[in-house]
Amino acid sequence: MADAQNSVSTAARPMRLKDALRQARIEAADRTGVVVDLRDAEIARLEILNEALDPLFAEIPAGVELFDRGITQGDTPRLWIDVVAHVVMGRDKRMYRFVQDTAYGRIVLAESHEAAKIADAVTSYVARRLVERERALSLPPVQAAPPPAAPRRNGLWTFVLGFVAGALALFALALFAALRIS
């Protein structure tokens, strides 16, 4: 009878908060461990791609400062190519996604599971950016606009002349009206 009463009392008694907190912390640690493992896998894949791009960036002429390649390890790890283009892993954490930020939003330039295909897309992008730079440097310099004309300083004389002309017109109108009445 005592065993039956003891099992009923433990079943009816709610779990202590301390035990519930301990269980919640264990579950959170398990989830965090999985997330950290996925993040580490993302970073490792981006590092593989970064190493595959080393020969490309070694060929860029000295003095060209268009590109700032590096991996950022924020909430979403990214391999930056320049200030507007980067590679990020897709939702499945195995697909590379090469994207560019534009004034109209983010566009996907290439997507693949293979680092070599993304490296080819990055190579094309770098080549296009270098050509754009060459074209911008070869344009003739823009002619400066002529300086604005000096401000006119006869504004006071214009006001005085207008005032005198208006007063004369009113005097003439009053004189005409007076002669007509008589």
From TrEMBL:
Domain of life where this protein originates: Bacteria
**Could you list the residue ranges that cross the membrane?**
156-179
Per UniProt, the keywords (alphabetical) are: Membrane, Transmembrane, Transmembrane helix
Provide the protein name: Uncharacterized protein
